Amino acid sequence: MRRGPALPRRTLLQGGLTLAGTGAAAAATPGAPLAIPEWTREQGASVLAAPYGSPSPHERGVVRRPRRSAVFPQTLSCNTPLQHLHGIITPNGLHFIRDHAGTPDVDPAQHRLVVHGMVARPLIFTMDDLLRFPSVSRLHFLECAGNTPFWRTGAIKATWTAQDTHGLLSCAEWTGVRLADVLAEVGVQPGAAWLLAEGADAAALTRSVPLEKALDDAILAYAQNGERLRPEQGYPLRLLLPGYEGNTNIKWLRRIKLGDAPWETREETSRYTELQPDGRARQFGFVMEVKSVITHPSGGEALGAGYCEISGLAWSGRGRIRRVEVSTDGGATWRDAALQAPVLDSCLTRFRLPWHWQGEALVLQSRATDETGAVQPTRAALVGKQGEHAEYHYNAIHAWRVAADGQVSVAL
Amino acid sequence: MRRGPALPRRTLLQGGLTLAGTGAAAAATPGAPLAIPEWTREQGASVLAAPYGSPSPHERGVVRRPRRSAVFPQTLSCNTPLQHLHGIITPNGLHFIRDHAGTPDVDPAQHRLVVHGMVARPLIFTMDDLLRFPSVSRLHFLECAGNTPFWRTGAIKATWTAQDTHGLLSCAEWTGVRLADVLAEVGVQPGAAWLLAEGADAAALTRSVPLEKALDDAILAYAQNGERLRPEQGYPLRLLLPGYEGNTNIKWLRRIKLGDAPWETREETSRYTELQPDGRARQFGFVMEVKSVITHPSGGEALGAGYCEISGLAWSGRGRIRRVEVSTDGGATWRDAALQAPVLDSCLTRFRLPWHWQGEALVLQSRATDETGAVQPTRAALVGKQGEHAEYHYNAIHAWRVAADGQVSVAL
User: Fold this and answer.
1) Do B352 and A134 touch (CB under 8 A)?
2) What is the ipTM for the molecules in this complex?
3) Cβ–Cβ below 8 Å for B7 and A134
4) What stretches of B144-249 adopt beta strand conformation (E)?
5) Do A39 and B104 touch (CB under 8 A)?
């Protein structure tokens, strides 16, 4: 039953709140009833026509932004509209999507998971088998390794929104079976050190994962925010590796093979490696490093003078967020934002800072620190270290420019 | 990076898990690849056709169960399918619904909230005004006061599922404005002790709420699980009173009036009062008391012998859940279930207990204790105290009967 800090009333009034009898509310004076709107005058609709329902038609602009592949038109990446969301949960209809061969229509009654390789007893599991295992539920973010394509200055557009810059990022409550329990059932052979996870989509996406991670906190997930996985999220079964880059969380999971070395699949050789300045590529940079973004105000918004709550999201694949600082002067000074409870391991954390914008041009930034002490680097430090030919794991401090007219855009 | 308790392997194998080369998996032998299913042989679908998406067609049975009013056919109660859900979040498409005049189509640009009565400065707020206030996000359950209609033995059906018995219950992450901040803005007059909240639906639903609650943790909510409220949940604005009975969480909120006494509206005189054995009615029993239900196994399921994880939900309007005990022998003995973190104030808590069903007929029960020390009563104790003419706030220990053939039904 905590209360937040009291709001300075003067700030609010300066922020343009409508007083009765003035402005937009001119029709209503204190003491006189509000006009009765049309929707109060007759019975409303019944939801029986569409029992699952949908958001209000007035929110039809709040959708994922799809980007097709020129080569494979059914292959998509779809960004979450972070600038329109509140709190930390992403509703399943807005969770980001990245697939390599479209969304297969998998029949759960026919789906099988085989676990084989360096195991004592290779086993084939039906979905009913997996549903009988002990279950676990956890709130975790997922982020595509290619989120925030800011390595090369020339490719960045000032008009990008938070959906464009950071929208391959979402967060849900995942429920499933601990992979460790399934591996205990098949019996891991001595010497096994890696596993291969394979999807049942037409890309048969495969990634090598260290056995240590599998035994630590990996989940074979079948539910997302209470209901079964959406088809585009891997229905009926996906791998969930808390804090690991999105593509390793294999969707439509059909096969796990144990071995003593990684398999050097396409997705860990030609893709999802980090090209270093010396021309060598770093493999297996699984963990998504500490990162944050201000979602309000953010790119594409037109800010009005007065009170404004700065709000955003912070996350780290290495544990909990410890601190988020915000600068409203281009990085000269920083203030601590409040972190909304609960603050959880490898989960989005909502941060907020009260602010008053007085109409001046400025640059807004957020800088997150995780519980390991890792701090978001500046763009100059990150690009200086990795070079402009890197593709993935961009986690530098993000900056929004607020112009004197209130327009917000990407700052570099 | 916690791990749960290790699972006894023998238990799992007895539970009917499919070994390679036997039973349903006869086509696959260790070392031979799984057959390639049809959905791996060609590109999958693109989500572009329906960007917001929907659950898999294979899950079409997982929907809310609507019950119409005979008098007002657009008025509904729709129960959440608890037996099909996992974790604690209810996806917005499955959140329970109770309305008194259907779902109005409110235009957020035209919607107004007036705050008046015993205030220093009556004010009218647009949605844009409210969105500029500081925001707060919290995970809370909502439960209809009439959930679990078990007061009169004759009305109970043995065939009821958990959706039928407890489905006017859901849980979401709510984001909005602290009502206390809005009240600070209008200035509460000395002597004010209650507020009236009024909805913009055709029922113009009105309830009196103690000012103390409004100043404590009440929220004017505009978002639910990240996105704006669904129309049937009060779009664009609802009152959220953590732990209070559902109907007080006024949807389509248009008016708050402060006064020194309750208004004695229809919904707190002819409805939502507790008829006591002496013929008197108790008013303003706002808080939903400690309660729990086992959702697996539950009514309508056919249980197979072997390992079974007992899983369910516990909640209390008075704070956090401290303990859930489960009995598999009709209440003779009780064992502590594990509580899934995070365990939050006035929020659903998922509990789990490993169990092995050996094919005997028995009765399953769960008993929750909250942080105030309140324990769920037995049905005999609750009905003995309140009588069979009570209508609301039934929170007794719930019992499922498991027959020798595995069929699960309501036990009384």
Assistant:
1) yes
2) 0.93
3) yes
4) 169-178, 194-199, 206-210, 219-224, 227-228, 238-240
5) yes
Q: Given an 8 Å threshold on Cβ–Cβ distance, is B135 in contact with A352?
A: yes
Interchain contact, A133 vs B309, CB within 8 Å: yes
Nearest CA in chain A to B56: A231
Do A258 and A327 have their domain in common? no
Question: Parallel, antiparallel, or unpaired for β A112-117 and A253-259?
Answer: parallel
pLDDT digits (tens, 9 = 90+) for A233-249: 999 999 999 999 999 99
Whether pLDDT at A296 is above 50: yes
Closest by Cβ to B137, choosing from A68, A72, A87: A87
Q: How far is CA B138 from CA A1, A151, A319, B214, B339, in A?
A: 11, 36, 21, 16, 19
Contact A40 B201 (CB under 8 A): yes
Distance from CA of B374 to the nearest CA of A (A): 18
* Facing A91 at nearest CB: one of B13, B86, B92: B92
User: Do B383 and B402 sit in the same domain of this protein?
Assistant: yes
Q: Which residues of B touch A72 (CB under 8 A)?
A: 43
**Domain's final residue, options A232, A254, A282:** A282
Positive or negative torsion for Cα A179, A185, A186, A191: positive
Q: Across the A/B interface, how many CB contacts are shorter than 8 Å?
A: 420
Last-in-domain residue among B265, B282, B299: B282
Which is it for strands B306-315 and A65-68: parallel, antiparallel or unpaired? unpaired
Mean pLDDT value across chain B = 91
To the nearest whole Å, the CA of A157 is away from the closest chain B CA by 24
Which domain does B310 fall in, by range?
291-410
A343-400: per-residue pLDDT in tens?
999 999 999 999 999 999 999 999 999 999 999 999 999 999 998 888 899 999 999 9
The whole-angstrom distance between residue A369's C-alpha and the CA centroid of its chain comes to: 17
- Are B131 and B168 in the same domain? yes
For the stretch B99-155, pLDDT in tens is: 999 999 999 999 999 999 999 999 999 999 999 999 999 999 999 999 999 999 888
Contact assessment for residue B160 and residue B80, using Cβ atoms and an 8 Å cutoff? no
Mean local confidence (pLDDT), B49-73: 87
Largest alpha-carbon pair distance within chain B?
80
